Amino acid sequence: MSQTRILLVRHAKTQWNLESKLQGWKDSKLSASGKRHFQNVDFSRAVHLAKTEHQPSHPPIYCSDLGRALSSARIIANQVNGYLIPNDNVRERRFGELEGKQVTNQVYWDCYHRRFDQPFGNKYGAESDSDFESRIASFLNTLIKRHPFETVWVVSHGEWIRTALNLAHGRKGWEIGEGIPENGQITLLDMKSIK
Questions:
Q1: 40 falls in which pLDDT band (50, 70, 90)?
Q2: Would the annotation count 15 as a binding residue?
Q3: Is 48 part of the annotated catalytic residue set?
Q4: Residue 74 among known ligand-binding residues
Q5: Cα–Cα nearest to 173, from 191, 152, 189, 195
Q6: Whole-Å CA distances, 191 to 24, 38, 106, 163
Q7: Of 19, 48, 54, 92, which is the active-site residue?
Q8: In what order do the strands lie in the sheet with 60-63?
C-alpha cells in the first residue's frame, strides 16, 4: 500500500487569534506580527527534510478556502515553488453561533471548553463531530490515493489539524491528542489510510 507524506501547517496568526475570538468558518485577516513570523519560517527546509521518493518539483499545497489559510499558503508557495489547491474540506470546523465571539469562561462556552473531554456535538449550530471527522477522513484518503509516495502540503486550522492527527493515530477525533498546533507550526504525517 502506498504512503503519502503530509506536511500539515496551521495558518499564520490572525487578528481574531490575538483577540481570543473563535473563527470557525468566519474569517479575519492575518495580523502583521503573524504574517511576519510566518514569512520567517523556512518552509523550504521542511521540504528538504521530508523529501520522498517521488518529490514533485512544484509541490501541491492543499489549503482551506478561508482567507487566513489561503494567505498563509501563498507564503509557503512562494518559498517552495508550489501551487495552491483550495479545498473546502480543509476548512476549520464550523462552530455556529460561537463564531466571531470572544472565548470566555462564561457558561455559554462550557461545551467549547469541555470539547476534549467529550464530543462537542452540534451545540449552537456547530458542525457535528461525526460530520467533521468524516470530512477530514474523506479528504485525507483522497489525498493519499492522488499522491502516492509524494510529499504534499496541507495548510489548515487548529481544530482541523488536531482532529486529523487523532484520526491518523486511531484516536477519537474529539480527544485532545497532541493538542492545537501553534500558528505556523509544521507537523509531519506519514499516512496510508484512515478507516
A1: very high
A2: yes
A3: no
A4: no
A5: 195
A6: 26, 26, 39, 14
A7: 92
A8: 83-86, 60-63, 151-156, 4-10, 186-191
pLDDT at 176: 84
> Tell me: the pLDDT tens digits for 104-153?
766 556 666 666 666 667 778 889 999 999 999 999 999 999 998 888 99
CATH number of the domain where residue 105 is located: 3.40.50.1240
Spatial CA neighbour of 76 closest among 53, 87, 60: 60
Tens digit of pLDDT for each residue in 90-110? Answer: 999 999 998 998 887 665 566
Q: Which domain holds residue 76?
A: 4-191
10 is in an annotated binding site: yes
- 68 annotated as belonging to a binding site for a ligand: yes
Cβ-in-10-Å burial (0-12, 13-18, 19+) of 93 comes to buried
| 37 known member of a binding site | no
> What domain count does the chain have?
1
92 is catalytic: yes
